[in-house]
Design goal:
278 residues, alpha/beta, TIM Barrel, two-stranded antiparallel sheet, 12 helices, 12 strands, 45% helix
Length: 278
C-alpha cells in the first residue's frame, strides 16, 4: 500500500530528478568557435589557403584576421579571402588593423572582404596618460562613425597596458566612459585582463553589454605568457556563464605561445572547449 509518506517521498524524488534533468538539458555547450589567425601567423604567411583549410578541419567556424608583413589577409586579397573562407565553411567575422594614414583604404578593404567587424588592435597614439586616452576615445568615436557609414562595426582590442593607472584611474575605464557604446564595440582580451590583475567579471558587471567580442585566451599561473585553454589562470567556465551579461556575440581563441606548434595548440584549445558545459 502506498502511504502518504511514501507518496510524498516518491514524488519528491521524481521532482528532484526532473529538476536535475532540466539543469542538464539547459547546460550550454560552446558553439561556433572562432580563431584569431595571429595564433597561426607563421603558417598563414607560409601558406594562407592551406592553413585556413587546416583551421576548418579542426572545427573552427569563425575567424579573425590580423595585420601581417603581407597585409591584412596574409597575402590574399580581400576578394580571395572572402571566397576561400566561404568555400571552407568559415566566416571571416573580424579583422585586426591599425588606425593610420591608410584608414580609408583599410575600411574599403574590410567591406570588400565581407567581414562584420573592424578592430583597432593597438593604441593609435602613445602615452600612458589620462589625457591621451581621452584623445584616443575621440579618435575611436570618429573612426567608428566612418566604419558605420561603410556598413562595418568598429571595435578596440585591449592588451595589458590599458589597465595601468593614473591617480587611481584605470586607463581602460576612460575608454569605456568616453566612447559611444552604440559605435565602439569592445573586444575584451580575457587573458590580458587577468594578466593585468583585473577581473573580467567585474567589467561585465560594471559595463554590461559592452563586450560583444572576446579573445578567449589563457595565461600561465606564474607569468603573463599564453598557454592552452584550461591549463592557466583564466576562469573560462565562469566567464562563459556571464556571456549574456557581457553582451557576447562572438569569441576568438588566441594563443601566442605554444608547447609544440601553433596548430597543435589550436587543436588542444578547441578540444577543450568542445567538452565544456556551462
Amino acid at each position: 500500500m502506498l502511504t502518504r509518506r511514501k507518496f510524498l517521498a516518491a514524488t519528491g524524488l521524481l521532482a528532484a530528478g526532473w529538476a536535475a534533468g532540466q539543469r542538464v538539458a539547459q547546460a550550454a555547450r560552446v558553439r561556433d568557435i572562432g580563431l584569431q589567425l595571429y595564433t597561426v601567423r607563421t603558417e598563414m604567411l607560409q601558406d594562407a589557403k592551406g592553413t585556413l583549410a587546416r583551421v576548418a578541419q579542426l572545427g573552427y567556424k569563425e575567424i579573425e584576421s590580423a595585420s601581417s608583413a603581407k597585409g591584412h589577409y596574409y597575402g590574399l586579397s580581400a576578394k580571395e579571402i572572402k571566397q576561400v573562407t566561404r568555400d571552407l565553411g568559415l566566416t571571416l567575422r573580424s579583422g585586426h588593423v591599425q588606425i593610420d594614414e591608410h584608414w580609408a583604404r583599410t575600411i574599403d578593404e574590410a567591406a570588400e572582404a565581407g567581414q562584420q567587424y573592424l578592430i583597432c588592435s593597438t593604441m593609435p597614439s602613445t602615452g600612458q596618460t589620462a589625457s591621451n586616452y581621452e584623445r584616443v576615445a575621440d579618435v575611436f568615436n570618429k573612426s567608428a562613425e566612418a566604419c558605420r557609414k561603410a556598413g562595418l562595426l568598429f571595435g578596440y582590442h585591449n592588451h595589458e597596458y590599458e589597465f595601468e593607472q593614473e591617480n587611481g584611474q584605470i586607463f581602460y575605464d576612460i575608454l569605456l566612459a568616453k566612447t559611444d557604446p552604440t559605435l565602439v564595440h569592445m573586444e575584451l582580451d580575457l587573458g590580458w585582463v587577468v594578466a593585468a590583475g583585473q577581473d573580467p567579471l567585474r567589467y561585465f558587471e560594471r559595463y554590461p553589454g559592452r563586450f560583444p567580442l572576446w579573445h578567449l585566451k589563457d595565461v600561465k599561473p606564474d607569468k603573463a605568457v599564453s598557454t592552452e585553454l584550461g591549463t592557466g589562470r583564466v576562469p573560462v567556465v565562469p566567464l562563459l556563464q556571464h556571456a549574456q551579461q557581457a553582451g557576447l556575440k562572438y569569441f576568438f581563441v588566441e594563443q601566442e605561445d605554444y608547447q609544440t606548434s601553433a596548430l597543435d595548440s589550436a587543436r588542444r584549445d578547441i578540444e577543450y572547449l568542445r567538452q565544456l558545459t556551462y
